[in-house]
Amino acid sequence: MTDRKLTTQKAIAEAIALEMRGDDSVFVMGEDVATYGGIFGATEGLLDEFGAKRVIDTPISETGFIGAAIGAAIGGMRPIVELMFVDFFGVCMDQIYNNMAKIHYFSGGNVSVPVVLTTAVGGGYSDAGQHSQTLWGTFAHMPGMKVVIPSNPYDAKGLMTAAIRDDNPVVYMFHKGVLGLGWMTPNPRATGVVPEEPYEVPIGEANVAREGTDLTVVTVGLSVHRALDAAEVLQEKGISAEVIDLRSLVPLDRETIVASVQKTHRLLVVDEDYHSYGMSGEVVSTAIEGAFDYLDAPPVRVTTPDIPIPYSRPLEQWALPSVDRIVEASSNLLVAG
Amino acid sequence: MLTLISPDGTVRDRLSMTLDETRQLYVDMVEARTYDHKCMAMQRQGRLATYAPFEGQEAAQIGAAAALRPDDWVAATYRDAALMWRAGYPWALLIAGRTGDERGGQAPEGVNVLPPSITVGGHMIHAVGLAWAEALNGSDRVALTSFGDGATSEGDFHEAMNFAAVYRTPTIFLCQNNGFAISYPREEQTRSESIAMKADAYGMPGVMVDGNDVAAVLTVVGEAVARARSGGGPTFIEAVTYRLGPHTTSDDPARYRDEDEAGEWRDRDPLERVRALLERAGRWTPQWQAELEARSSQVVEAAVAEAEALPQPTAEEMLSRMYAEPTSALQAQIDEIDP
Fold first, then answer.
1. Domain B19-308 carries which CATH code?
2. Domain A5-193, CATH among 3.30.230.10, 3.40.50.970, 2.60.40.10, 3.40.50.720
3. Which residues pair with A83 in a beta bridge?
């Protein structure tokens, strides 16, 4: 056994490198992914090892390079294409949801589109309303794409390996706050033990990140860290919180959600995405459909309100799900019902 | 490519402006650079959020804005503070915006400058629509939109250029080709020999100008403005310049470019050539320069003080600016966080 540790960012780059070594059809394309190594470092070191034919910097043409990746995938390649920030999807969404997500269906199942669309999500570092969104609910809403969101280095590598090998288009969303970047707020959970060999984390399986008995906290991305921190605070108050890291939104592991709620009887959903019409509502529906008779209180949500992510640091911290908000909502939930 | 003032300050062609006017453009460029340096320092001190410096591009921005009338429209980018300021937008509001205060986006009455576009290229078509609206309303205002070399690879660029040409809108497209789109060099961005030549395909004039020459930029943009104002339709201008600093305060240019190259461009500094011209004409002394820099610092420091004296924005204010009337659903979400 190895106890080698990596940051999430390096774990992603390692997963890509391992697959590129073993499969010539895998290549990487996007803005600033080659010379720069990705502005969030997810492709760091790949240009040196694989050269400019397989690690390709592109013009600022998201429709162009995502559309080209779809074409290459139809032609037998396995492109990894990076949309620098998920917020930029607006200029290329037709390629994503009308083409990448639907061509397999429209071909009668004949054509595969094994694209991995990587994209940076999340706020908390004062980058304002067009560079801080998560938007996973938007992508998960549209059929035809798998959607994965790792919260730690181990899952980041395993989910990337699984995504590259998957014959479906996979949207791989990495939260900037879990990558372990030097210019972000230091985050001890962004570094962890990662096996050196390739392995897969199955897409569609949630992870019970912490077991508990009094309430279930379902979340994803950086909010997993917030929920785990909150669970420690709650433990001191005598409240045992179970934390579920969904890891994938599509497919959604509804069984794990339902089983946990059946055990704890109380549900809190923490979602950094906008409050309305998103993941938090889907998880609550899942619990009501699958564990209605077990619930001792109405489910509660801690989310980002339906406003653009504030640029102002104090207002941004106010708007995003925080440890304090999770602790307070959990405490209230325990006395409700 | 049109150059009127050489990097050494000699005049290649007759200038269409007086020495006083030239001197004023120099004063404006010095003030703009003072602002830029101040913002970089404030970001490092944690007083500003992400900042995108424009050092090296002062001539392109000041020269272009100087060719406009105060009531013309400007739709620019996150790197265009000098352009916006010269078009009438106060430093204090620009700084407030960079601290994260959305009130910085409220242009004063009569200042027809849009908030800076953060998305790449999305605002070019707004300048087409603004210009079109002015023409439909029978006014002779024009709209200038500024963007970088990278933005010309976006689909939005194609649609804005085509639309402007088809409807002959009074729009001036000002591309500040500063050499890089974050790390990606201009030579890779397009195989066109110049960006200006792209205008041919849309059926509008395309002009290439030395973007570090404030006189040349003023002349070329002035001609485009005159054409647009008189019903002659849009013009595309490529101002060739160089981003001396990083893409933003989050960027490290040493990862992708040769600092020798930046050094060569420092020799073509847009301020230095005008300074040399003024000195040769007997209109510049070291003492005047020192006074000018002190005065610029005072102006910028006063703007910083004004921006930082604004009361802290509140969550309730966010509610009030989401819709024309606050919604009860959003109020409930805010109350849930702040009971």
1. 3.40.50.970
2. 3.40.50.970
3. A119
Choice among B256, B266, B280, B321 that is catalytic: B256
> Quick check: B188 and A305 CB within 8 A?
no
> Could you check whether A5-193 and A207-335 share the same CATH topology?
yes
The domains of chain A are located at 5-193, 207-335
- Catalytic site positions of A: 62, 131
Of A36, A59, A87, the CB nearest to B190: A59
* Tokens read off for A302: 């801690």
- A278-302 tens-digit pLDDT: 999 999 999 999 999 999 999 999 9
Q: pTM, whole model, 2 decimals?
A: 0.94
- Among B49, B121, B150, whose Cβ lies nearest the Cβ of A311? B49
pLDDT tens figures, B280-335: 999 999 999 999 999 999 999 999 999 999 998 888 888 888 888 888 888 888 88
Q: Where are the domains of chain B?
A: 19-308, 314-339
A207-335 has CATH 3.40.50.920 classification: yes
